[in-house]
Every structure is written in structure tokens, then in C-alpha cells.
histidine kinase
Amino acid sequence: MTLWPRSLLGQVLLAVAGALLVAQAISAALLYRASEERRAQHVVGTLAVQITAASTGAPAERVVRRWRERGGLGNGGARRMRVERGATPPALPSDRQETAIAAALREVLADQGVQGADRLRVASREALTDPRVLRRLEEGRPVGGGMDLGRARVVLASLPLRDGEWLTARTLAPERDRRALQGLALQTLVLFAVLMLAIWLLLRRITRPLAALTGRVEQFARTQDPAEPLAPQGPDDIRLLIEAHGRMEARIAAMLDEKDVMLGAIGHDLKTPLAALRVRIESVEDENERARMAAGIEDIVRTLDDILSLARVGRASEPPERTDLAALAASVVEEFEDMGEAATLAEGARVVAPVQVTWAKRALRNLVSNAVRYGGSADVAVLTEGGEAVLRVTDSGPGIPENRLATITEPFVRGEASRNRETGGAGLGLTLARAIAEAHGGRLVLANRPQGGLIAELRFPA
């Protein structure tokens, strides 16, 4: 089972949906990356302002104004806390080292000429674990300006001073801009809805007439009946295709009609002199010679009938009708029994399939005739297998060489090389049987039996 749809509509919709999903995923990644860079820049700028002001003694307002001019701080100001001094940098077991922020802050402080920037330490911790934050909360002083402290983190930067003490600055890291990601998700849903609907409507204008054209082609292939032309619909390209198919179908139907007329004329023109020749040979005195001539005429007539039948397969005037194949097979087997041939019908369940009775009998008769001729006997069985109705004919003859199974159903190809009337006809029996099966939407299956002999099956859609 594959997840890739087989229809044009499904494949295009899936491809567009996949491309849109990838594009939006890339946009989300870039947006997230830009948001994280802004957050880090804000933290670095805020810590740099505090450390620079505390270590150089410059007024904080001047330092803040300078950093805003350089883009290091947002218009919302820095969420600063009082800088503290201590013998050692404040540390908790849960602290997380922030190497990226430390590298950026070292570069900024070094650029400002702050001493000891190369030994700077930067770590972060959950806001509610920081003693300074907890103390401010206990005192009732505002912290974070409405920020959700349960998910916020405090970033601490500790700078060593010349007197051996450490200067530590704190700031609350800005919250992630969740609204931007939510907006991107909403934008993606809207794009999916609008784009998928537009593509679905467009492709339906293409696939609907293509489906109608496919059904018409399949119907014409089965019946060769030129019904009412299919009305052009859809875009101009599809309309032109439907119109071209209509013209081609009309031309093919006209050629088939001409072929039927021509074959009828050929059959009449050939059978008339053959009938006259059959009458004339009665005047031949030699009985053996007369029998030979009559057999030759009969052989020509049978071959002519096979050729005309093969040419008319699929052009039956009556539609298929639901038929009991067991009864059909019984009538064919009875014909051979009346002629003294070894043909038997195995008992089985009732199997019904839509067939043209005359043609189905002709196909089965050809298979039984071949089995009797080459195998000495024919065993016929009727069954259902794999959703198909099967007419199976089995013999005990020599079978067919494996390298000839694929070509044995071609016109004028015979199982044995001679053209002796005693051993076979013109080589059209299997060809006609295959054509009849295919005209019903079925197939002819040939296979050699392991114990010897041939299995020939007419398989029709049940």
C-alpha cells in the first residue's frame, strides 16, 4: 500500500500541500531564528549597559541612549536589576551556562574597553529560583513588568574586578514572541484552505472531462458502437482533445462499417463459386478424388468462416446477457458427444456471467475441438476464481512448448507444423477464442499441465 495517490487530482493536491508545508516550515524556522537573535541581542545589550555603567561609572541613562542608537536595546527599555558585588559569582546547581550570550557580551565589553571581559561568566536560571527575584517579590516590588515568571529565566553576567571582587548584573530574558508563530500557523491554515480549494476547483475542470473521455474510450473499445458524441467541456485544451477523439471515433466506426460490408461481400463472392464447385465435383467419377476435392472445399469454407468471424468479433448486434455458463458448456459438450468425440463436463456450482451466447459457445467449441484433436479427449469444467467466471478445458495431449505459449494465439499459428487437414485447421481457433474473451473484457489463459497436457481457460468478468 502506497500513500502516493494515483489520480492526477490527488497527486497535484498532495504535491502542492507538501511544497506549501515545506515553505511554511522554512519561514517558521527563519522567523524563530530571528526572534531568538532579537532576544539574545536584547539580553546582551541590557547586561552590557549595566556592566559598562557600573564598571566605568558612566551615567546609566547615557549608556542606555548610546546602546539604543546602536540598536542594542528595544524601545521597551532594559529589564534591569541592581548590580551587585561579591567575593564570588552567584551560582546555583541548576544554573545553565550561556556560551553564545557570553561570547557576544565579551565582544561588546571588549569593544567598550571594559577590563576583565575575557574572564566574563554568563549563566541563566529559572526566575523563581533566583534569590534577588524572590526577595523583590517578598517585598512586594514589581518584577518583570507583567511577565510570566513561572516560565521566565534570569540571565546573570559576572565580571571580575581589579580588587578581586565580582560584579554581577542580572536581567530577565524577554519572552518568546508566541504571537508571531501563532500568526504564521494561522496564515498557513488560511493559505492551505484557499490554495487547496482553488487548485481543487481548477483540477476538477480538467479531471472531470478526462474521466468522461476515459469512460467513453473504454465503452467504444468494448462495443465499437458510435453513440452520441461526447460534449466538449473543460478548458480549451481538453475541449480540443474531446473534439479530436469524437472525430477519430467517427472515422473508426465508419471504417469498421466499411470492413463489415467488405467482408460480407467477400464472403458472398467466395462462397457462391465454392458452392457451385461443390456441385460440379459430383461429376467426378473417382470416389477418392471426389472426397479429396470435397474435403478441400470444406476446409476453405471453414477457414473463410473463421476469418469472417474473427473480423466481426466485438461487433455483435445484441448486448451480453446473463447466462448460466454450466448450461452453455453442457450444450457444447453434448454436440461433441453426438459426434462420438470424447468430451466430458465436470459437475460444479452454477456460475452466471454476462456473455454473448453465440460467441461464447464459439470460443468454447474451438477450445474443446483443439483438445479433442491434439489430446484425444476434452474435460470441461465451470468455476469461479479470483472474481472471474472460468470455462476450463483440459486435455492429456503433448501440450505446447513453453517458448510458443506466448505466440500460439496469433493468427495462422498452429501447435504442430503441418497443414494436414487431419491434424488441424488454419490456426485461427485459439486466435478467435482469445478475441472473443477480450471482447467480453476477459482473457484466454493457456498453461501446460505438470503431468502432461494443456489447460485452456476462458475467463470472463463474473
Residues 72-79, 417-424 have pLDDT under 50 and may be disordered. The first strand starts at residue 84 and ends at 86. The radius of gyration is 46 Å.
